[in-house]
Every structure is written in structure tokens, then in C-alpha cells.
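Section 3.1 - Work completed
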Amino acid sequence: MTTNLGVKTLGELSEKLILNKKFPSYAYLTDFGYRPQNVITALELARGVDKLFIESNFLDHDRHNAEETQHLTALQAGMFAEEAGAKEVRLFHFSQRYLEGRKCEAEIFYREMETGREIMRKQLQGVQK
């Protein structure tokens, strides 16, 4: 093909014109009942994701509350993150009944966790410096 760049192959042109850069992938799971078909479908979409944002509304000992309200426990969030092979995981959507424990419960399955509150705290510390 002749262009103002001279004679170029389609491969050479595509290198100049088409973005071949890999952009980060994200998955966001909330109001998500931990039922087999939900998990299978979500895993198909989230497998290998760069950043997984996943709710962890309850601790596992309150699993019955999670089931009734279509939410996840922190343990279920950790199991899902491990199965999905997510590179980074951010927990959010917390019940105010727990001061601590969510992150520890999720980390049984997935070690590199941060909560939304931890991220906000780091950002605020950076602004205050």
C-alpha cells in the first residue's frame, strides 16, 4: 500500500495506527450472592483480572445474613479472588458491625488485600505531606 509514508505493508501500518498496548483490566463485584451459577459466571468474566474490586459485607460466622441479602462474606471474597487469579484485590462495602476482621478473613485465601479505607488513608496521608 502506498501512503505519504511511502510503500508500507499492512503489518507496518497497523503498528503505527493500532494501539497494541495492554490496558489494565478491572472487575467489580457487589450485591452478589455466593451461589454456584453466580460464581461460575463471574469467574468467566473476572479470571486473570488486574484489579478486582469485591464486596465483603459480612464475616463468615454471619454467612446467613450474607445469603439473605445477596452479599459476600470476607472469606468468600478471598476465595473468589484466589480462584479468579486477580493480581490486586480491593475489599469494599463493609457492614459497620465489624471494626476489624474482614481483611484477615479474606487473606486466608488471598494475601495481598487492601480495603477501601486503607487506600483512602494512604491517599490522605500523601495529601497532608
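Second construct:
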Amino acid sequence: DVLRDVDLDLAPGTVTALVGPSGSGKSTLASLLPRFHDVTAGAVTLGGADLRDIPATELYRRVGFVLQDVRLLRASVTDNLRLGRPEATDEEVERCARAARIHDRITALPDGYATELGTAVTLSGGEAQRLSIARALLADAPVLVLDEATAYADPHSEALIQDALSALAAGRTLLVIAHRLSTVRSADRIVVLEDGRVTEQGRHDDLLAAGGRYATLWDAQRSADDIREGSAR
């Protein structure tokens, strides 16, 4: 089993961030909520109900996700955005695209919102992320899983994605897999995973003060950022 002895409670309206080295179980843990995997022992519950007892259509109305590998349909931009809520109006679609900072890019496409995505028209990684955030905004699920949402983004796109995520987070319960620790320092709770186990949890400042694994990861990432900045000058 990838995960062992994990016991987490995501309080409504809070942000919980999962951090840890590659292979620590972050993606596996996050994939349990949208049921990409099921547990072999114990249970994952939503509002007291076992996820395995919730019909898929109901589950995906309540749990949204923005994944590292964004899958876009070979369909119009509008159809891609309406995936979680087909009955949404054009006005609602545009409002969510604006909130996700992707409206301007869409209007620059050959046919705007009617543009077919596929071989002729493709989006960058950061643009696809923002489109998937707009889709999650439109679906309006109260629980959201974000898996390394800025992993492939350039600095400009990352800033836009952070703005979009701020709009998305309002009033929702978020489970975020952190690629860059700086993006989750304001999380209500940071959970450190190692080898499938929770080794630390708390707020950013408290974990830094504890001088444990999180502090080590933070210092290592800060050093790497300093080196990158130095080489970019």
C-alpha cells in the first residue's frame, strides 16, 4: 500500500496543503477524493457518507479537481468549460473565464469561445491550467482537489494561476498538492507526507519553528530559487 495510517479531516471552507518529496504519496492521497483510486482499508467520507456509496454523478457535483495533466476535449472552448455543468449560460461561462484570467486568451483565438481545441489550436500548459480552473469555477463544487496546479507554468502564468486559484478558493474546501511551497504558506494546514505517512502537520510558521522535515524542504527550495535567480541575472 502506498499510504499508511493517514487520518485527515478537511474542515469546510479551509485549505489543506500536501507537501513532501517526490513519491511520498501526495498524488495518491489527493486522488482518493475524486475516486481515481479507492482505499483498501478504512474509508474516505464526504459529509459522513462513504465515497463508495455516493453515485458518480453526485460525487462530481460535490468534488471538483484541477489536475497537473489537464485533459481537454477535442471540442469547442465553451464545451470544454461546460463539462461539469452543461446547462450553464454563456454569461456564466464568460464570468468564470474572466475570474480564471483566461478570457482574454480565449477571445484572441480564431473563433473565440467557439474555437475547436485540438491539433490546429493548442494552449500552453499554463493556459490549459487556467481553462481547467474556469471549468471548476463553473461546476461550482464545494470541495476541490488541486494537484500541482502550477507545476508547468512560467512565472507570468503562475501569477495568473494564483489569482485564479484565489477566486476558486473562496468559500470552498480545498486539498492542494504543493509543487512550490511558497504558494501554500498561507494554507490553514500543511501536511507533510513521507513514504506514505504523515510526519508533520501545522501552519507554515509553526512548522518552520519546529525545524523538522518541512523546514528542511523550505530551506532547500529557497536555496534552489536563489540559485535560479542568480543564474538569470
